[in-house]
Design goal:
The chain has 7 helices and 9 strands. The chain has helices at 2-14, 47-54, 71-80, 92-103, 130-138, 177-203, 218-226, and strands spanning 22-25, 36-40, 60-64, 83-85, 107-110, 142-147, 157-161, 174-175, 238-239. The protein is globular and about 50 Å long.
Length: 241
């Protein structure tokens, strides 16, 4: 029932667009068909509906298993098509379900921080290793997506869809710990870099013709000078499942 309920709820959430107005940036990077992993920051309980409306196409969301403890969330999210995972010790059957979705050219949406960010909404929490595992094993590109701030009723917000990241050299297997750490560091680097770009875009109103840039902003240049690209360890050995 996942897809029908997903499409039905998407229609309902569409009526909420005026309540949570969103300006989309990088819409050309949205993958409408074909396998990919959307990696999104998670700021509130309404994120699910907002991302569902503004990222077209059917996606299987990855959710923490704790949602199964409450009857309402279990019923709704199960019908929504959420794949529940133990964040500390994911079982093999759950991983296989995720890989099957991607192997069948499906799409998943994951919150790589592993939980909702209840602190500073302009900063990312630590990214967990699951994103690297899913991307390496499936060979699916990662589409990083950032919401500018915590959604508030009738407050304009911004969503930035970054360019697809296809950085793992060896695909089709579960990577070893060293490679997971390397990939995770790179994904964290790219998403934090996106945050600098998004902050500059909003704070300096880059959508206005007089404020547009031909190159990188001063803020981004300064950030890149202080944050070198993580060392690529993606060629390290892998282990099989």
């Amino acid at each position: 029932m996942g897809r029908p309920f997903y499409n039905f709820s998407r229609v309902l959430f569409n009526f909420c667009r005026p309540i949570y107005p969103i300006k989309m940036l990088g819409k050309e990077n949205i993958v409408k068909k074909g396998k990919c992993i959307y990696a999104c920051n998670h700021l509130s309980s309404v994120d699910i509906g907002i991302y569902q409306v503004h990222l077209p196409g059917y996606k299987r969301y990855i959710g923490k298993k704790e949602y199964l403890n409450k009857k309402f969330s279990k019923f709704v999210l199960s019908h929504f098509g959420v794949i529940f995972i133990d964040r500390d010790k994911p079982d093999l059957s759950t991983l296989r379900e995720i890989f099957k979705v991607l192997d069948d050219d499906g799409q998943i949406l994951i919150y790589p921080e592993g939980t909702r960010n209840k602190g500073d909404d302009k900063k990312m929490l630590e990214i967990k290793g699951g994103l690297a595992i899913f991307a390496a094993k499936s060979g699916a590109p990662v589409i990083p997506v950032l919401m500018y701030r915590r959604p508030k009723v009738f407050h304009k917000n911004y969503i930035y869809v970054g360019e697809p990241l296809d950085i793992c050299k060896e695909k089709g297997r579960i990577p070893n710990a060293e490679t997971i750490a390397s990939l995770t560091a790179r994904y964290a680097y790219e998403m934090n870099k996106m945050r600098v770009i998004l902050n500059d875009y909003v704070e300096n109103k880059r959508w206005k013709k007089k404020n547009r840039l031909n190159g990188k902003s001063e803020a981004l240049l300064a950030w890149e000078a202080e944050h070198p690209v993580p060392i690529d360890c993606c060629r390290a050995g892998t282990s099989t499942v």
